[in-house]
Write a structure and sequence with these properties.
This protein is mostly helical and about 120 residues long. The chain contains six helices and no strands. Helix 2 runs antiparallel to helix 4 and helix 4 runs antiparallel to helix 5. Keywords: Cell inner membrane, Cell membrane, Membrane, Mercuric resistance, Mercury, Metal-binding, Transmembrane, Transmembrane helix, Transport.
Length: about 120
């Protein structure tokens, strides 16, 4: 194997990709409700903001994607050490601890975004 290309390849056992995907899907799930609120709070207005409500029918699919990606990331973060390769990301204790912290922080962000239609109503009342 060529060591030059091995250094440039992405680690497949890293939980980063499902976590990033989960947060992006959570942003998609909150576009219908939190998107207009955030834009208005930033002073951005216009009639086009109402078009973000078109994402509302897609919300359950985004939520399912968020849950699926975070379940996958959680499995990657908390899997047993014997399933990790010797040179893998999950075999180093500092990387495992950092991955757990990042996993729970991104899970919290995703939960806030996904639940935004419910708590934004109370915030705006």
């Amino acid at each position: 194997m060529n060591t030059e290309t091995d250094d440039k390849t992405l680690k497949t056992d890293s939980p980063a990709w499902p976590m990033v995907g989960g947060v992006l899907a959570a942003i998609g799930a909150s576009l219908c409700c939190a998107g207009p609120f955030v834009l208005l709070m930033l002073g951005i207005s216009g009639s086009w903001i109402s078009t973000l409500a078109a994402f509302d029918p897609l919300r359950p699919y985004f939520i399912a994607l968020v849950v699926g990606l975070f379940l996958w990331a959680g499995w990657k973060v908390y899997r047993p050490l014997d399933l990790c390769s010797a040179d893998g990301v999950c075999s180093v204790p500092d990387n495992r601890r950092r991955s757990k912290v990042v996993f729970w922080l991104t899970s919290l962000i995703a939960a806030i975004l996904v639940s935004s239609p419910y708590w934004l109503v109370w915030l705006m009342a």
